[in-house]
Each structure stands twice: as structure tokens, then as C-alpha cells.
């Protein structure tokens, strides 16, 4: 019977990949039970060693600049991206560029561009907040063609020092979104639902309907009632319209949808009973 060596110092791999030697499958299983990494031969030895060193390298040398992996924005809207960084980068130059790799990335904004006057209607704005350790990038009037990969960067400088960066994928879509797809309110109170639409639907008719009841549909600029609740729909023509319920009733609990042109999106409204007064 094959002798199974115990997992102890000298027979397992530490976090720096030291102490490798060829082992049997049984030895590996025993090592696993003892929370120890033991390679099972040259191939696994190389694989585990690389993985451990790679993870250690990532934890120590990378991830100093971070942001979300993906953002979605409606066409014609604005998007603000937060890029977080470590304290040692407070005085460094930050930048925002479009592209999947540093070598082929088109810089759109830099914090050291003193000739750039930041205004609200500017296409790309960048602002560094060293107190919060974050710089934010705001992109205005987004178009579908601007979908793709972007990068937050901290400029390190020097031949041997690569910039610290973090990538994100931005999706610019046309259609509709709702700020909150599940709304709730207490009986007798008011609630407002906000429906967002992309630029191409700015002039389209907006509607609010109770699903399954076409007679309940209300158009923008109109008012109506459901079960004693008053309902008003308003369109600001800047990318959002609101639906306001007043004097909510329990019977108003249902699925609804808001629409712009041919696009619609569902919203669930839950009305909860008023709390019973304690005696």
C-alpha cells in the first residue's frame, strides 16, 4: 500500500510557492484536507506555483485603482464614473481614456489639463477629490456609438513603472429604464414612479397602464383615477416622465407598465395597510 505522507512544513507549498516536490494523488487529497497546497507532479507544480504567485502579485501590486466592471446609460443621458485610488496616489495625475489597452487608449480628460475649463455642458468632465480618494468622470449626451471599453488611470511615470489602471465597459442603449421597478407606499399616501427614456423618444407619446387593462392607460399631460386614487402623468421632455399616485388604495397593488413609443417596461406597485393604532 502506498504510504501517504502527512501535510506538514516541508511537504507542502507556502504562499510564495516554496517547497514543491512531486506527490501522489493520495498525498494531494490529504494535503487538501489539511488546508495545504501540494503539487502532484511537474505540470500541477507549475500550475499551482504560477497561480499562487499570480494571486500574490495581484493583491500586492495591482488593484490600486478600481471602478465598477460595467455601466449602462440611456442614449442622450449623462453618466458619472467613480474611480477609486490608494492614498499614495493623491498627488498623481489622473486620466480617463477610451480603449481596451493602455497602448491603444485615446485620452479624453486629464486632471492636469489646466487649459480645460470644466463646464456643465462639456462632453467629458473630470474631477479629483483627494479627501475621498476618488476621481470622477462625467460623460454627457451619450450616443450608442460611444459604447465600449474605457479606462481610469493614474499616471506613474518612469521607464520601469507602468501606470495603474482599471477598465470598465460602458453600454449606451436606447429604450426605457425605471429608477425603481418595485415601488411601495402606505394606504392613503402618495408615491411617484420615474420612467426614463432615451433621446430618440423625447417627442413620442408616453403612457402609463395597468397591465391587463387597456382602459386604464393614461397619456402624458393627463390625469385619471384608479379605485379612488388620483393618478397624474407628467413628461419633462428631458429624458424622464413621472407618474404620481395620490391617496393610494390597497386595490392599487398591481403590475403596471410605462411606455415611450413602442418601448415599455414593467413596474410593480405594492400598497401596504395603514398601521393599526395601538390601544
Summarize the structure in words.
With 279 residues, this protein is mainly beta. It folds into three domains: 1-61, no CATH class; 65-173, Immunoglobulin-like; 176-272, Sandwich (Immunoglobulin-like), CATH 2.60.40. It is 10% helix and 42% strand. It is built from two helices and 19 strands. The chain has helices at residues 25-33, 42-61; strands at residues 65-66, 70-74, 79-85, 93-98, 106-110, 124-129, 134-139, 148-155, 164-173, 176-178, 182-186, 191-197, 206-210, 213-219, 223-226, 229-235, 240-246, 254-260, 263-272. Strand 8 (148-155) and strand 9 (164-173) form a beta hairpin. The protein is elongated and about 70 Å long. The N and C termini lie far apart (78 Å). 22% of the residues are buried. Residues 1-62 have low confidence and may be disordered. InterPro entries: CD300_family_receptors (IPR050671), Ig-like_dom (IPR007110), Ig-like_dom_sf (IPR036179), Ig-like_fold (IPR013783), Ig_sub (IPR003599), Ig_V-set (IPR013106). Keywords: Membrane, Transmembrane.
